[in-house]
Amino acid sequence: MTSRSKRLSILGAIVALALGGSTAACIAADVRPADLVDALNGVFGKHAGDRAAHTKGVCLTGNFTPSADAPKLSKAPHFAKPVPIIARFSLGGGNPSAPDNAQDNVRGLAVKFDLGSGASTDIVTISAPMFFVKTPELFVEFLKTVATGDQEKIKAFFGAHPESTLQNAWLTSHPV
To answer: pLDDT of 62-89, one tens digit each?
Structure first.
């Protein structure tokens, strides 16, 4: 598996988790969806009735009305006419009581554009231009390391994967 396909795999898993869908079709790696959920629950605990990732959030419904010029710029169906949407704003992690003003916590936005006849366009984003690990395996490894509470092991993880500090550095230098 190439580095690019692994990045796409973890992005797919996060997208599926953010939208509440099945991750089985999204992960083309050695990590099962249950492994990811178990690792998240190992850090944040299980919260009955709540999702494991991006637990704290708010949903809304409405209509998206494209500008009159939008069809000139794109053939995307949701740029052709007003369409209903469902959207969710969220905080990263699995803590339903996470403070809204934490600067080191990624924010999420997911929007589903209802195109009719069962078709949709889904857009899922986070507030950082990168994810902090390269692969699904490293994500689970990181979560399991954090769950131990052992600061030396956590420090060793970041020492072995220095690129994993880039997202946090970006988030803390770009206030929300």
So the answer is: 999 999 999 999 999 999 999 999 999 9
Per-residue DSSP letters for 25-45? TT--SS--HHHHHHHHHHHH-
The order of strands in the sheet holding 119-126 is 57-64, 83-91, 107-116, 119-126
Residue 50 domain boundaries: 3-173
Structural domain count, the chain: 1
54 noted as active-site residue: yes
One of 47, 54, 78, 174 is an active-site residue; which one? Answer: 54
Residue 3 has pLDDT above 90, yes or no: no
156-167 residue pLDDT tens: 999 999 999 999
User: Which CATH number is 108's domain given?
Assistant: 2.40.180.10
Contact between 120 and 112 under an 8 Å Cβ cutoff? The reply is: yes
Residue matched to tokens 């060793």: 156
